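Hey, quick one: can you model this chain's 3D structure?
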Amino acid sequence: MSRLAVFGYASLVSGTSAAQTLGRPVEAATPARLEGWTRAWTLARDNAASEKTFARPDGTEPRYCLGLNVEPSQRPTAPNGVLIALSQPELERLDLREIRYRRIDVTEVIAVAGDEPPGEPFDAVYAYTARPEHHHPEPPDDSIIIATYPATIEAAFAQLGPGQLELYRRTTAPPPVEVTPAILVGDRIPAGNPRDW
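Sure thing. Here's the predicted structure for all 197 residues.
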């Protein structure tokens, strides 16, 4: 049977978040980097038309919510993240969660952290990158970043090990729009998709 993994570079770094989708505890994840790529806030979700709709604390609904994305870059920063071993059915569950992203094979550009034991190599490693219709190199008007999203990501990197949070911050473009608390006001969320962002 093939050994498969996903490279998590944002909310999937959180074992709690990944477990919501995979339906099992996610405890052992291997720190890794994605060579030749960069991480930025270039995924835009249509707030009114998606499976979850958020409002600002004042009740107004932003047009878009931004999320992190990885993309090939002329000036790559090799974002850090984790490798999570999974089965084919689990990979298909992730496809449902990451509906605005397409799954791509990044096996050849994954570098495992130098202080990690090599272990048995994966046959294939996948990552999720924004679909063209959701990729916005510049944020659309009336976009926000939901505060619980970067907070969850930073907490996960802090727990990943020494230096990982600092490396995340160094290899991530700064938020291009307001980071604000938000309230879930529309819930059509399929099972396995976190509700906080």
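One thing worth noting: The chain has a mean pLDDT of 94.
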